[in-house]
Amino acid sequence: MAKALKSYVCGDCGAVYSRWQGKCDDCGDWNTIAEEKAAVSGAPKGLSGKKGRSIHLTSLDEPIEEAPRILVGIDELDRALGGGLVPGSAILIGGDPGIGKSTLVLQAMAALALKGKDCVYISGEEATAQIQMRARRLGLSAAPIKLGCETNLRDILSTLDHGKPPCAVVIDSIQTLYADHVESAPGTVSQVRVCAHEIISYAKRKGTIVLLVGHVTKDGQIAGPRVLEHMVDTVLYFEGDRGHQFRILRAVKNRFGGTDEIGVFEMTGAGLEQVTNPSALFLADHNAREPGSAVFAGIEGSRPVLVEIQALVARSSAANPRRAVVGWDSGRLAMVLAVLDARAGLGLAGCDVYLNVAGGLKVSEPAADIAVAAALISSLSQIPLPEETVIFGEISLSGDIRSVSQSEARLKESAKLGFTRAMLPKGKKTNSSTIQLHTIARVADLVAHFFPDGIE
Fold first, then answer.
1. CATH number for 360
2. Mean pLDDT of 445-455
């Protein structure tokens, strides 16, 4: 009998090693490598002499048919998907525990089922009675969804093969499934890879839409990202702080549409409700008269979003002043602080700095640099920004303020919400009949707005 080879696989990234080691060289995590059985040593290493079939090759200019779309009916979800669901596609939805993933997919399946689509919900974490209780709480009991509770992959595929293929299938979650021919525990890289491959193959073969719910690691990444994210067609991350009611559905991969689109939801007692105007919601509690606050006009995908950036600067006698950041990149904050010290002489090196993006939104674009700097300078000087003012721009290491894209869209959204002034970089010419524009060339110009007589 051929002897089974041993291999060691990282549970976070899927890297394979011939022997055990404490740290994964690919992702850098510790104690994530576990032993798994590999291929049998007596198995053939190459293809046999049998020839394969010839595949059909096409040219780039050959006419194609556009992928048909099925609108869910939840506009924010359709926006994040790039215009709706594509038959035969596989969609991966990841997020922290309790963020609302199961609620979102249940509401999506209910919306499709009420349109006459055949939808199946397979849960490996909850009993059918628990799903029914959630549906009753959300007011979705009348939706004709077929529920199932199973973790055996063979039984799930056998059930789906009976009768007409369903329009959409939910697997909640992929880490709970196991294939009985793979000798490893559910949730391991081998099991996740095999189960995902079989389910995605079924989706492509039958034209069924598959929504896979995925767990996340301690870093917020989907467990086994190298295994799952490359196999599916679309990856959606469900973001948000459970202390806030806002939830952001962000597309990071989409083979049938654009990436970086977001859908905004509000978690209520009746489930997830769409937020059609997120800017107004994020600025609901904004107080322009308080120092340390700046309104940033950002872009999320194709949508302009206005958010409040809050900063608090306090003198510290500690050797290592504290830096606390929520909703922004801490490395980017360190760069802005260094530029303000070196190019404007603010002396923030000896201060505790606290930065927060209000509403639980995570901002990643460099255009927020100048808004963060304005909030920091406002907190330091105890002078608020002028009322009804938005600000955006990127800060370079030389202290220059660089222009950013889609300025017109940012200003249009600002004007719609009643803002009358905008502070923006010099450079690209921007015209606005409703907003008074104030251009800034360097960080020193922004500092002079708060310290007209110079820094003491």
1. 3.30.230.10
2. 78
**Tell me: the pLDDT tens digits for 107-129?**
999 999 999 999 999 999 899 99
In a domain, 147, yes or no: yes
Task: Indicate if 244 and 287 belong to the same structural domain.
Answer: no
Q: Is residue 70 part of a domain?
A: no
State the DSSP code for 70. B
- Tokens linked to 230: 């490359």
What does the block give as tokens for 7? 């291999």
Residues 230 and 256 in one domain: yes
Task: Please check whether residues 24 and 93 belong to one and the same domain.
Answer: no
pLDDT per residue as tens digits for the range 216-233? 765 555 555 467 888 999
d(CA 265, CA 27): 32
CA gap 149, 170 in Å, rounded: 11
Count of other CB atoms within 10 angstroms of residue 51: 7
HSE-up of residue 311 (Cα within 13 Å, Cβ side): 34
Tokens read off for 170? 């939910």
Name the domain boundary from 275, 300, 327.
275
Over residues 274-296, the mean pLDDT reads 84
Helix axes 153-161, 189-206, angle to 10 degrees: 10
- 65 located within any domain: no
- Mean of pLDDT over the chain: 86
How crowded is residue 58: how many other Cβ atoms within 10 Å of its Cβ? 8
Number of domains, the chain:
3
Task: Give the position of tokens 């790039």.
Answer: 82
- pLDDT of residue 175 exceeding 70, the answer is yes
DSSP tag of 442: B
Amino acid at residue number 256 = F
Residue 28: give the domain boundaries: 4-40
